[in-house]
TrEMBL record:
It comes from Nonomuraea monospora. Residues 147-419 form the Peptidase S8/S53 domain. This is Peptidase S8/S53 domain-containing protein. Belongs to the peptidase S8 family. Residues 1-24 form the signal peptide.
């Protein structure tokens, strides 16, 4: 079968993992996304208690979810009578917080009025990410504008509906997911081609999962940048629309499955947003297809999307589209449509990302390097790409609309362009100026910053990042007729065909300043527990304490064992976990921490870690199970 969607997945096109090569073995670096557990028996009290609560003794602070708010007081009274410490009993809420041992929590779970018991997890205050400071969003927030009353529609791979970053912000959901008989399946929770009720854009459905990896994490990351807790417009609503389908075809994907978005799905989604009654400031499309070096309005596919984008503009809704990551002097479709807001990526040093598309078709640059945001399983991770730059602009337009609800959207877009910091650079011997997003100048009265002269490296065979199907988290391109000559870019508006299903662009960045946010390393070297102990011991290793602390922070975000069950949040505690473990559990902890540190240092593959952690979280793991899990983990560190 020959797949011919005009628009395809830009999880490959518009996203680059961290600052190193594309992932080949582990398509989406979301280590905490594990295989969907079997359905639990609601009548079994044990199934109500989160794995690992109190399994190593002592008491745990836990949230007890109740079937009805009216049951809070009587259940709390009964728990207190049984010597369980009730530490919080909110009024008119269907939960309470207790501290109890594993046995006490298990006993509490036997009450039919208790629906579940899980850890009362802690969250550190959200720091202002460097990207928000660079564009002045922190100043806008401080002035009291967080985008309240507006919304951003994210047409992507769905959203983790219960992620803390989205609490109370998801105002509408829909799914438009095409299917075909030859291995293309729907990602809508109802299994159909369309869904507009319930959690229609849920990114945690079974079809989003592949061997414990969540294929649908891209949409949550994008939505978090635009309007999540740590995003540009944290007071705005989110309209989450799933527009991708899952393709189960190794020949096309280069792996068992990948995601594609059909034009028909995108058109349905754009019409859905246009028909909403609530205020929507911008539509975010971090995706793309063919490459153009001039406006594509007159092409067949361009004319279709031009009509859709124009219809949204008449409702004062902007369509913000990723320019693409091909290091091309143009954009991917549909960013080439003249009424789209085409966005390229810069880093936190005010330099154009070397893999970003650029040129006169772009409207704005925005931060897109090492951007930390939300991903499924209630965690965060740092990604890079024009996918990450685009929601900075979509969120900015929500802030602009909140500040000036009566101004036409075209005027707000023009304001962002005229107040942005000018990036000046050459394209084919002609000087081009493209503004970098600056909300401080657009909304708080700050002066326009002075121009920054850029010197993008020339695109040559030696320096251009090339798609590499053998080292890609994206699919392998379908071969074309060998007799057909390969098209080359020109100054015309003729599109440069991309593979029907896009491959990931592999980029290794060199001679760059160190990242200003905590991200994974890029080393492929695997260290043993003994070597990691040397690194963690004060002044005996080659990795800095700052980097090691960052790694432990990443492990803490990604693992369910550390530091929830086994305290390894500091260098000293982590050193003790690795040093001479005695018991079966301690040996598994040492193996797990070793593997997680290797992951943080840049190696891929987390399926074995998820399986081993499930054993460790079990209330009564057998000696044989602990030994087998430890052995499996140790295989990954050799």
């Amino acid at each position: 079968m020959r797949f011919r969607p005009l628009i395809v997945s830009t999880i490959a096109l518009a996203l680059l993992p961290l600052s190193g090569p594309a992932y080949a073995e582990d398509p989406t670096p979301t280590p905490t996304s594990v295989q969907q557990p079997p359905a639990e028996d609601p009548a079994d009290p044990g199934s109500k208690v989160e794995d690992g609560l109190g399994v190593d003794g002592g008491t745990e602070r836990a949230i007890v979810e109740l079937t009805d708010p009216a049951e809070t007081a009587p259940v709390a009274s009964q728990a207190a009578a049984e010597s369980v410490d009730v530490v919080l009993q909110p009024q008119s809420q269907s939960f309470m917080v207790v501290e109890g041992t594993a046995e006490e929590l298990a006993k509490l779970a036997e009450d039919p009025r208790v629906s579940s018991i899980h850890r009362d997890r802690t969250y550190t205050p959200a720091e202002v990410a460097p990207s928000l400071s660079l564009i002045g969003a922190d100043k806008v927030h401080a002035a009291g504008n967080a985008g309240a009353g507006q919304a951003v529609a994210v047409l992507d791979t769905g959203i983790d509906v219960d992620h803390p970053w989205f609490a109370g912000r998801i105002v509408a959901q829909a799914c438009f997911s095409a299917t075909e008989d030859s291995g293309v399946v729907s990602l809508c929770p109802n299994g159909q081609n369309q869904q507009t009720d319930g959690n229609a854009a849920d990114a945690m459905t079974p079809n989003c999962l592949l061997d414990g990896v969540n294929l649908c994490d891209h949409g949550s990351h994008v939505a978090g940048i635009a309007a999540g807790t740590g995003g540009v417009a944290p007071g705005a609503g989110i309209v989450a629309v799933q527009v991708f389908s899952r393709l189960n075809d190794e020949d096309s994907c280069g792996e068992p499955s990948c995601l594609v978005a059909y034009e028909s799905s995108l058109r349905q989604a754009l019409d859905y947003v246009a028909g909403l009654s609530q205020p929507v400031a911008a539509v975010n499309m971090s995706l793309g297809g063919m490459l153009y070096d001039a406006s594509c309005d007159a092409t067949e596919e361009g004319a279709i999307f031009k009509e859709k984008f124009d219809a949204l503009l008449t409702k004062d809704i902007a369509t913000v589209v990723a320019a693409g990551n091909e290091y091309y002097e143009g954009t991917a479709h549909p960013a080439c449509v003249s009424t789209a807001v085409a966005v390229g990526a810069n880093d936190n040093s005010d330099v154009i990302a070397d893999w970003s598309n650029r040129g006169p078709l772009l409207d704005l640059f925005a931060p897109g390097v090492d951007i930390e945001s939300s991903v499924p399983d209630n965690t965060t991770v740092a990604y890079s790409g024009t996918s990450m730059a685009t929601p900075h602009v979509a969120g900015a337009l929500a802030l602009m609309r909140a500040a000036s609800p009566d101004k036409p959207m075209t005027e707000l877009i023009e304001t962002l362009k005229t107040t942005g910091r000018p990036y000046v650079y050459d394209v084919a011997g002609t000087q081009v100026t493209t503004p970098r997003l600056d909300l401080a100048a657009a909304l708080t009265g700050g002066a326009v910053q002075p121009p920054v002269t850029q010197s993008p490296s020339p695109v040559t065979d030696d320096t251009t990042p090339e798609p590499d199907p053998s080292d890609s988290s994206g699919p392998t391109p379908e071969p074309e007729d060998p007799a057909e000559p390969e098209p080359t870019p020109s100054s015309s508006s003729t599109p440069v065909p991309l593979p029907t299903v896009t491959v990931t662009v592999t980029v290794t960045e060199t001679a760059k300043p160190p990242a200003t946010v905590c991200t994974r390393g890029t080393s492929a070297e695997k260290l043993t527990a003994k070597k990691w102990a040397v690194e963690l011991h004060r002044s005996t290793g080659t990795i800095s304490d700052e980097t090691l602390t960052c790694y432990l922070k990443l492990v803490g975000k990604s693992s369910k064992v550390f530091p929830e069950l086994t305290k390894a949040s500091s260098l000293g505690k982590a050193y003790r976990v690795l040093k001479s473990p005695k018991t079966r559990k301690a040996k598994l902890d040492a193996a797990l921490l070793t593997a997680w540190l290797n992951w943080a240092n840049g190696t891929n593959g987390t399926t074995a870690l998820a399986s081993a952690e499930k054993v460790r979280l079990s209330s009564k793991p057998s000696a044989a199970a602990l030994k087998k899990a430890t052995t499996n983990i140790l295989k990954t560190v050799k």
